[in-house]
Design brief:
Layout lengths: L10 H109 L3 E5 L9 H10 L11 E6 L11 E5 L2 H13 L5 E2 L2 E2 L1 E4 L3 H9 L1 H9 L4 E4 L3 E6 L2 E5 L2 H10 L24
Antiparallel strand pairs: 1-3, 1-6, 2-3, 4-5, 7-8, 8-9
Length: 292
């Protein structure tokens, strides 16, 4: 049997050709879409670039404004700081001036207190002295003085006598006695210090106090805890002009100008200072102390 001479078609070649045609057709179809997509991306990128550029410009402008404000405000702040420094320096200067003036005022007050107290050195206050006849008060007091004084006093030795503020302790009204000389007053004080029983008059005991200014009175009142501790320990003291306390502790004389100083000094001597709320004043002259 003789083979046929008719040629059989090549299926692989036709399939490859068909695929190439489809690829070309797909490429032709995709080109416009890709072109459009590329254009969109490019437009978006250009827009983003423009926005970024505008933002940079805006930021640059804002930065310049901020820098300008900082420069301007910085100058103002520096000026304000300079003014504050000047005010601080002025305040320090004023504080020093006020401190100096306060010292001057304190010094002047002490001098005035001294002058007032010194003008009263020849005065005494008698408390619980019963006067039989008010019009004869000076004679009665003079008669009492001369009943125990070694030196006889006459009326001219006492300048005046008179009642002072009302007594709040239930005692008789205080009587102010002004001696013509400080020496005669000290003559009387020496006598009653030596013999306190001389203050007994009838059924009453006369109390004797120095006549001092209000400032000295308040200071001595404040010092009462110290004076009580001194008396309890048999330490001699007296009041100095204008406001200080003189304390003897062998062999030294000490001066105390404040309650704190007194407490520290007594603490060094192992003496306890007790706080007191007693209404009785420390301004009165005890028989163991006097003003000098």
């Amino acid at each position: 049997m003789v083979a046929s001479a008719e040629k059989t078609p090549d299926l692989n070649v036709d399939l490859v050709k068909e695929m190439k045609d489809m690829k070309m057709e797909f490429a032709n179809l995709m080109k416009p879409a890709l072109k459009d997509m590329t254009s969109i991306i490019e437009d978006w990128f250009n827009s983003l670039s423009t926005q970024n550029k505008d933002m940079k410009q805006d930021l640059s402008h804002e930065i310049q404004q901020i820098q300008s404000e900082v420069t301007k405000n910085g100058s103002g702040i520096r000026k304000l700081a300079d003014e504050l420094a000047q005010l601080q320096a002025l305040a320090i200067k004023n504080e020093k001036s006020i401190a100096t003036q306060r010292e001057q005022i304190d010094s002047m007050q002490k001098k005035l207190t001294y002058m007032e107290d010194y003008s009263r050195r020849s005065n005494l206050k008698l408390i619980n002295f019963e006067v039989q006849r008010r019009g004869e008060m000076k004679k009665e007091i003079l008669l009492w003085f001369n009943s125990f004084l070694p030196q006889h006093l006459v009326e001219q030795d006492i300048e005046r006598v008179h009642f002072v503020d009302n007594s709040k302790s239930g005692l008789l009204r205080p009587i102010l006695v002004r001696f013509a000389s400080y020496a005669n007053k000290e003559l009387f004080m020496s006598a009653i210090r030596a013999k306190p029983e001389l203050l007994k008059r009838g059924d009453k005991t006369v109390q004797v106090y120095q006549d001092i200014s209000k400032e000295s009175f308040e200071w001595r009142k404040m010092m009462r805890p110290v004076t009580i501790a001194l008396m309890k320990n048999n330490l001699k003291y007296n009041w100095g002009y204008t406001v200080f306390l003189k304390v003897w502790k062998h062999p030294t004389l000490h001066r105390i100008y404040s309650l704190e100083e007194g407490e520290q000094l007594l603490k060094a001597w192992n003496i306890q200072v007790e706080k007191t709320t007693s209404p009785r004043s420390a301004a009165g002259t005890s028989l163991a102390s006097s003003d000098n």
